[in-house]
Amino acid sequence: MKQGRPKALISWSSGKDSAFSLHEIRRVGEFDVVGALTTVTETFDRVSIHGVRQEILQAQLKAAGLPPRIVPIPYPCPNEIYEARMGEQVARAVREGITHIIFGDLFLTDIRAYREQKLVGTGITPVFPLWDRPTLPLALAMIDSGLQAYLATVDLKKLPAEFAGRKFDLQLLADLPDGVDPCGENGEFHTCVVEGPIFSQPLPVVTGERVECDGYGYCDLVLESLPLVGRVGA
User: Fold this and answer.
1) How far, in Å, CA of 40 to CA of 56, rounded?
2) What is the pTM of this model?
3) What is the per-residue pLDDT across 131-167, written as a single tens digit (0 to 9) for each?
4) Which architecture does CATH list for 7-223?
5) How many other C-beta atoms can be found within 10 angstroms of the C-beta atom of residue 81?
6) DSSP classification of residue 186
């Protein structure tokens, strides 16, 4: 029963780590997840870093049964603007009785420490359900759960551009170059989830144009009903 459980938001990137974090949180049942917090780069109208269209983000959250909480940020985004706008969302959450934010971080201690430091004294407690799980078994568990995703963005210093748009599956894991984390936790790649146990239905997403920008390779992912046009951005 939802009654009596602490209310939480999930930090939703559109990718596999946030999706699997939600799956694990719902499986355990400790929290009532009441919304998804996502930064969107307003210059491109896309999920920040991942470059995923807002139409897909909205379809994801509808299928996951999560009300969106969009945090618009400019491009480029000075850190003070990012922190101010996130701070507004945290304050709003506290006013609404939300006590936790769930993050999909895996092992980067500096990122975890930053999140914890920014939430100290706010009334919000960070939760890291996937923290320190070995990433190859974790990647296999994601795939085995029925989670399906595409690589939306790749760091061209770490992966060839043709990896953008590939499915996150067993063949991808086998093809990753030595030194690339199976979950891309060092920023080697970012994903967009299109199906999984958290969704009421799969999303009809197809791969579109591939572009390179600022050292990253992007694959424009589109819902089948949308045109294959529009810039892929940061």
Assistant:
1) 12
2) 0.94
3) 999 999 999 999 999 999 999 999 999 999 999 999 9
4) 3-Layer(aba) Sandwich (3.40)
5) 12
6) T
